Amino acid sequence: MDRLCVTQVNNVFYLDHFDGNAHILGTLHLTLTHVFFIGASRRQEIWLNNQLISSVERLPLTTGGAPIIIRGKNFRVIQLILPRERDCHNVYTTIKRLMTVESVSELPCFCLSPPECGWSRTDGWNRFDMETQLRRFGLPNSTWELTNVNDDYQVCDTYPTVLCVPSNASKSMLKASARFRSRGRFPVLTYLHSNGKSALCRSSQPLAGFSSKCMEDQFLLEAIRLANPSCSVLYVVDTRPALNALTNRAQGKGYEDATVYRNIAIQFFDIENIHVVRNSLEKLLKGK
């Protein structure tokens, strides 16, 4: 509890920007896991997890009190007016302590547990099982099978050890496709509709350049198409702008060429790269 300079402040005003900056009277609470405001009428509750706090800022003192702004990583902005400057200082200091931890073990999920809980701290690693999740989709079946080709993470270090691929795809085919794909991310199943006939697969861009080809990669995409009985054309969705994908071809990467891959149709979604998207987000947050 030494991280909490204050746990509760009464007579706090919350500025509701969605209601013409209405001033809502209530109480501010600070705990080891959350910062939350409860209106006096109990009709207004605002919660923010401490690990979702992006920044906290004190504003100049006004005749109405001491303003403070809490910005969340989830884009929430909480503007409060505390009754006294000392309260504002204590809240500011507490939030600065709560939003940063020196080690992972200080996170609430590790340092807080019911006293009657007898679980080992290592049990959580076994809570998720990829094979169990895939079986929820009815896998494996006659057209899709589970493979351990990435059992040691040597084929792709960003894929799990258990993957789902077309049943007629051999391990040698998968490894060859991985060598032809950026970061080794060869096409694998990510979702199968309950009717068993509509699948979504993911992969990274091929290392095609302007002329490179990989027969195994072509066969793998054709196997994916054939694993969807009602699909005469395999639709390849590339989220990049077409110009960016074409530029990447000059760097030895690129996209699936419809003249090389049989029965495919490629569609670009014109989403700019991460730097442009980040700049757009920064402008959005500044506008708030």
Automatic annotation (TrEMBL):
Residues 124-288 form the Myotubularin phosphatase domain. GO terms for molecular function: phosphatidylinositol-3,5-bisphosphate phosphatase activity; phosphatidylinositol-3-phosphate phosphatase activity. This is Myotubularin protein 6. Belongs to the protein-tyrosine phosphatase family. Non-receptor class myotubularin subfamily. SUPFAM superfamilies: (Phosphotyrosine protein) phosphatases II, PH domain-like. One of its GO terms (biological process) is phosphatidylinositol dephosphorylation. Pfam families: Myotub-related, PH-GRAM_MTMR6-like. One of its GO terms (cellular component) is cytoplasm. Substrate binds at N273, I274. InterPro entries: Myotubularin, Myotubularin-like_Pase_dom, PH-GRAM_MTMR6-9, PH-like_dom_sf, Prot-tyrosine_phosphatase-like.
